[in-house]
Structure formats: structure tokens, C-alpha cells
Amino acid sequence: MNKEEARVRIEKLRKEIDYHRYLYHVLDRQEISDAALDSLKKELFDLEQQYPDLITPDSPTQRVAGKPLKQFKKVSHEVPMLSLNDAFSEEDVSNWYKSIKKLLPANVEPDFYCEQKFDGLAISLIYENEIFTLGSTRGDGYVGEDVSQNLKTIESIPLRLFPYERVVKNLEKAGLEKLAKTLKPGDLKKIEVRGEVILTKKEFKRINEEQIKKGLAPYANPRNVASGSVRQLDPKITAARKLCFFAYDLISGIKTETHEEKHLVLEALGFKIHQHNRRVENLKGIFEFHKETEKNRQKLDYEIDGIVIIVNNNHYFDLLGVVGKAPRGALAYKFAPKEATTIVEDITVQVGRTGVLTPVAHLKPVSVGGVTISRSTLHNKEEIKRLGLKIGDTVIVSRAGDVIPQIVKVLPHLRTGKEKEFKMPKNCPVCGSPVKEEEGGIIVRCTNKNCFAQNRERLYHFVSKPAFDIVGLGPKNLDRFIEEKLIGDVSDIFTLKAGDIASLEHFGEKSADNIIRSIEKAKEIELGRFIYALSILHIGEEYSRIVAQKLLEKRKIKRPRDILKAADEITLEEWHSLYTFGPKVAQSLFQFFKDKHNRNLILKLDKVGIEIVEPAISHKLKGLTFAFTGTLKRFSREEAKQKVRALGGEALENVSQKTNYLVVGEAPGEKLEKAKKLKVKIINEEEFLKILES
Known about the structure:
Layout: H1 3-25, H2 34-50, E1 74-76, E2 86-87, H3 90-103, E3 112-118, E4 121-128, E5 131-137, E6 143-145, H4 148-151, H5 164-173, H6 177-182, E7 190-198, H7 201-213, H8 222-230, H9 235-240, E8 244-252, H10 259-269, E9 278-280, H11 283-295, E10 304-311, H12 314-320, E11 322-323, E12 326-327, E13 330-334, E14 338-351, E15 357-368, E16 371-377, H13 381-387, E17 394-400, E18 404-410, E19 435-438, E20 443-446, H14 452-463, H15 475-483, H16 498-502, H17 509-521, E21 524-525, H18 527-533, H19 541-554, H20 560-568, H21 572-577, H22 583-594, H23 596-607, E22 611-612, E23 625-629, H24 637-646, E24 650-651, E25 661-664, H25 671-678, E26 681-684, H26 685-693
Parallel strand pairs: 2-13, 21-22, 23-24, 23-25, 25-26
Antiparallel strand pairs: 1-6, 3-9, 3-10, 4-5, 4-7, 7-8, 10-13, 11-12, 14-15, 14-17, 15-16, 17-18, 19-20
Helix pairs in contact: 1-2, 5-10, 18-19, 20-23
């Protein structure tokens, strides 16, 4: 067979293999045996090996897992991958409906599209000129990870979309004649599709059986396996787990009028969509779909945790805009939280980095929603009092939203008389120092600033993101270094040597070198992150930036010792005068920088070589405070806030009398009404840009 004959044969083989892939993995049908399909794939593989220049990115052979990656590349989403607000009752859904009705034109009665809410991993797929070019995870909604190599191994994800002519015919068959007539080949130039990668219950069972055979612990639930599989650096692991993909949103490429049409277009392009989704007219239809779906939930071959409700009309959906990281026009209507009963075997107390004592219930292990739970935080002694909880009680444990385990009810009728009252200790359970009560006794705090438990939690916080963000220094390694007396406080981290670590059991030279490199890299840090890393009481990430700005007003800060000099020039009244800083926050800051122990720690960090690298801040917007509402066109809200801060202004979440400007984008929220009442100056995006550029 010459090269031209091979090219023709290769093209025919690809089409035949893709046809059977689509039948089996998208339509759940099969016309030939697995062995016959494998034979076709083998012939194609051999021909491509003979003529490697004929291999194309969309060839079925390119699904084969490649070499392991060192790390995932970051991917910015052109359109943010938003999350959804949750509802757990008909009342919640009704309230949501009332809220969106107020924002729509008076005569509009929206219809809705209801979908089953998959319990998997949300991903984005990019197709250019019909070829799959990029697949990424949601990440934080704005930046995800490039997992294209792994996604190629999932058979239900097409490597090539259907050709233009076939898409037109499919649209006509779906009843979208108008769209079929107006569709142009250029509409398929770039397509972004979003959906969910899931693992079926059958495949989950098979994987766990293999785990048990190997003497390993079985996985807790399919979602974790699906998510972990997609994020494996070695795509061979992903390929070994037969994942499935359902498409549920069309972001760009082909314009549609309704969300229902999006699903029909996705199917016309060659994607697997869920056939039991449904358009409904009103709330009654939503509630019927929810009840029906929950009733049949156990019969499904995959896990779901509720339904998704979407305003069907795309124009009205866009009009409703976004609140925070969630669109107003969509809602996740979860099933009733999964619950189980168990026994509280003990209640112990944990000590946090700021010294707060938190009671924790130790439970007889119980499976709730596929996850084995043995502990549940009780928050504070008031929560124990509210529940009427005793050690030894039988309780109902719930996973709210299928995530957070919590004790929701005590069953006192099952008491035997052997149950014991729990009392918060008078002394710290770790260091034995006296405790003090705050906020009317709700908060109980250890008085010893050198408490080992607080120090350990401060160490965890210090190396975490967005503090120093030292890769390789997680709690497990930190605990080991504490145990081996290698570190006592946060400054000791920067005195570690590779030899100290490599000599420990289970550590080698390579891992030791990696940790030391991460530590050295972390020695340069922005001032706001440094302040956040210090674990100052009441000072979170947002307040840390404000504190940094205040310190920089006093003097240039290049080393930690400069922070102390600047802080010494700031009075208690000045701290209190900062935006939203009440007396507790101001007092906390003032006392922190006066405290001898804290000052010594900062000086120790200075001696080990920490350098403060803060971008030059203009003072053009000094003294001005901005808030934002609605969707901006030029940049995200977070980018807008960063621009304000870079020019010396303050950008916070809420509107108050101290706010100078409220910047209003498309589909503004409740802040707009609040700003009007407070007579805050309201400006649009163009006016905001003029302020920045003036």
C-alpha cells in the first residue's frame, strides 16, 4: 500500500471508528463487537506508525495517554465559570423566583429549563475549526488548569465536531430550522462547551474492587474519583478509569435564543447530553421535576445531588446578571440533606491559631451520603447548649449541601442515663494556661500566646496561600519538623537546611532540595501577604491590605524591621479611623505591634532574610473608597478593585456612608438601592475609567 492509498484508508478508518465511538459512548448503542472495533483501531494505528506525517490531532489514536506531565498549566477563562447558589426547599425556590421577577420586565412570566445536577467535575472545552484544542478545569472560576491531555482519553468527548453540513441537518431534525438556515461555517470557527465529567456507579464499583484486591482502602464516592482522575499528572491513570462526559452549556460560537436550544445544538454538534432534562412553564413544573428526579435518583447509573433551574430565555438570563460568583438566573435546588444517626462518643477541644477553643464531637463512624464521618465541629459552647447535647447522645448527622458534616438534632428519648454533660475547660487543654471568655461567654480563648497548639496552627497558616504560600510545607511535614525539633516558630522555617530534611526517614535529597527552593523563593513577599501571615486577631486578607497601605503611608518598607518602625508611628486613634475598623480591630492591631513577643518574632523574620517587595502605589486615589455592583465590561470586579488599590484607594465589598463611589455595571444588585438611600455618588464604568486615567 503506497502513501496515497494509506491516506485514503486512514481517513475511512477514522470515520468508521468515530461513528462507532459516537454510537456507543454518546447514544449508548452498539453495532459491532468490542473486538471488531479494536481490530479497526489496530489497523489505523499500524498505518499511522508507517506514515507518521498523516497523524492528525483528531485521530482516534490520539486518545492514547501520553507522557506524564510535570505540572498543569494555568488557563484563564474568557467567560468566568460561575458557581450556583443553593436552595433546599420549595420556599427557597419561591423566594428566588420572587427576587428575579422584580428584576425582569413587568409583563414577563419566565419559563425554565430543568436539568439533573451531576455530582462530578465541571470542565470547559475549546474547539477551533471543529478540532478539540483545549480542555480546562473550573479552578477559582477565572483561572483553571489545562487538563487537555487527560480529557482526550474520555471517549464521550469528541476530538472533532460534526462537519458543518451534518450540523445543519441535525438542527433541522431537532426542529431548529430557523437556526439551521442562518448558521454559517464561520460559526464553528471557535466553540466553547461546558459540562461535567462523571464516573458511573458501575465503574466506581469496579475501581473499588481493584482497590480492595490491592489491599488499599476503597474510595469514598464517585465524584472524588472523577475529579482526581482528571487532575492526574499521568494521563494513563485517567485513561484507566472509564470516565463519561455530559455537555450542558454552549458559551460561544452559535447564538441561541433559549437554554433548551443550547442543548439541542450541543447534541447536533456531536456531544452527549442528558435526555431527561426538561423545559417547564412555572414553579409547579420545577417542583414536579424535582420530586420526580429525587424519586428516581437511586435508579440512575451516576450520582446527582439535586437539579439545576435556569431561566430558559437567554436574553432574560443575561439581563438578570451575576451576584458574587453566581448568576441570578440559575439555581441549584438540592435534595434534602443526606442524614444518618450515630453516637457522640466524646467531645474534645481544639485550639486555633488565635487561641480560640472549639469543641469537636467525636462520632461513632457513620456513612452519610457516601462519606464516612467520624468528627463534627460544634463551633462553640452556645451551639452545644442549643442542641442540648451530651456525651453519649444519639444524634442525627447531616451533610448540608452534601458537603459539610454537622449535628442537626439530638434524640433524647434514646438516652440511657449514662450520658455526661460537657463543660468548656477552665484551662487550655494543650498548655494548661487559664482561658478567658469573650463576647458574653460565646468565645473562649487561651491566654498563653506561646501555647504550642496556637503556634502549630500559626505555622500552618503562615505557609498557606495567600500568606507565604510555601509549596511542600503542608501540615504533615510541618508536624514532622516540629517533632524532630527542627522548627519552633515561623522564623525557623527559613533556617532549615537540605541536610536537616534529607536525613529524616521518608525524605530524600530531591524532596529536601525542593522544599528548600520553595522556602528561598518565599523570602520575597508583598507587604499585605506578610501582614496576613502574622495571624493578627481580627485581621483577615482584606484588612491586611488596608493595614499594609497604612504602614506604607508612614515610611518605605523593605524589611520586616521597617514594619515595626512604621507601626510605632501609628496611634490607636489612627487605627480606629481606618475604614470599617471598629474598636476591637484597632485595639488588636495596636496591641499586636506593642507586644514584645510579636516584635521579637518580626525581628527574627528580618534576620533570616525576609524582604518586602511591594509594588509602587500611587496616591492618586488616596482617601477615596469604591464599591462595585453588577457586571463590568472591561474587567472583572477583582481586577477593578486591584486598580483602585494600586492607585492608593480602598475597594471593599459593602456600601456605607464612608463610600465615595459606587461603580455600577450591568444588572446591578441591592447595593444600588442602598447607595441611593445613603446618597453615595453612583457612577458607570466609563466614568470610573475616566477617574483611573485622569
